[in-house]
Specification:
Its EC number is 3.5.4.16. It is built from 10 helices and 8 strands. It is α+β, with helices and mostly antiparallel strands and about 270 residues long. The chain has a domain at about 10-60 and about 135-265: GTP Cyclohydrolase I, domain 2 (2-Layer Sandwich). The strands form 2 sheets. Strands 1-8-7-4-3-6 form a 6-stranded mixed beta sheet. The longest helix is centred in the last third of the chain and has 16 residues, at about 200-215. The structure holds zinc ion. Zinc ion (ZN) binds near residues 158, 160, 161, 163 and 229.
Length: about 270
């Protein structure tokens, strides 16, 4: 099992644009990946291999873009959840399917542990991201410049193989009627990450809910992640990141705003 994201170690900050921004723009090497309305195309970034752009198409078939909605309700929930006993029995079945003996000493308590762990790893199904933002809305008069929370760690599971993917989310918005508590943006990320996901859907869901509840002048979301289902199956080398982004409002309409966002995200990272 891996560590859960810990919001107390999150390096979040509110960033305001400064006059020194112009210098930073010159070192920017990011290119926009948003090709058309409502779609985000995956892009590869390999820190160990500069300019490995030719690899990009290989990642695309793995993750099929789908319509994203912040309020998507998993259909299975409408049928009711199985009991804990049923869930544990299912884990025992998978253990036997994998070729092991669920009754041997080391595995005896595993089904119970797995079911308990699922409660946390997939706890996002029990959280309403809209409610999260509504509940903690705070008026901050007079501040309408960019609010950026970056390096929000998350752990999710791909919906294709139920294998973890993890990374960092960066969120920016231009408030129109107030600023939400910064830790709540991290909880929004957690809410969507702790479900079966594609990175593209998660990126869009984060942007959707911020747009619909906070009604900002613009919102930008960048997610960079490593997918273990690719690393473990040997399709890609370890250390390869997939980057997805969503730009709404001012960030969508003005390329300079995208540059500003990306510069702030990359700022201080060398
Ligand atoms: Zn997968």
């Amino acid at each position: 099992m891996y560590a859960k994201p810990d919001s107390t170690t999150m390096k979040s900050r509110v960033a305001r644009a400064g006059d020194a921004m112009d210098a930073a723009l010159k070192s920017l090497s990011y290119r926009s990946v948003e090709a058309e309305e409502g779609r985000v195309l995956p892009m590869m970034r390999n820190d160990n291999a500069p300019r490995a752009e030719a690899q990009a198409p290989e990642i695309a078939p793995e993750i099929a873009p789908e319509p994203a909605s912040a309020t998507r309700v998993p259909e299975g929930l409408a049928l009711g959840r199985p009991s804990r006993e049923e869930a544990e029995a299912a884990v025992r079945t998978l253990l036997r399917w994998a070729g092991d003996d669920p009754n041997r000493e080391g595995l005896r308590d595993t089904p119970a542990r797995v079911v308990k762990a699922y409660g946390q790893l997939f706890g996002g199904y029990d959280t309403d991201a809209e409610e999260l933002l509504e509940r903690v809305f705070e008026e901050v008069e007079g501040y309408s410049d960019i609010v950026l929370v970056r390096d929000i760690p998350f752990y999710s599971h791909c919906e294709h193989h139920m294998v973890p993917f993890m990374g960092l989310a960066h969120i920016a918005y231009y408030p129109t009627k107030g600023v939400v508590g910064l830790s709540k943006l991290a909880r929004v990320v957690d809410t969507f990450a702790r479900r079966l996901q594609t990175q593209e859907t998660m990126t869009a869901q984060i942007a959707d809910v911020i747009e619909s509840i906070l009604k900002p002048r613009g919102v930008a979301v960048l997610v960079e992640a490593e997918h273990l289902c690719m690393a473990m199956r040997g399709v890609q080398k370890a250390g390869v990141s997939t980057i997805t982004s969503q730009f709404r409002g001012a960030f969508k309409n003005d390329p300079n705003e995208q540059v500003r966002f990306l510069t702030l995200v990359r700022g201080g990272k060398g």
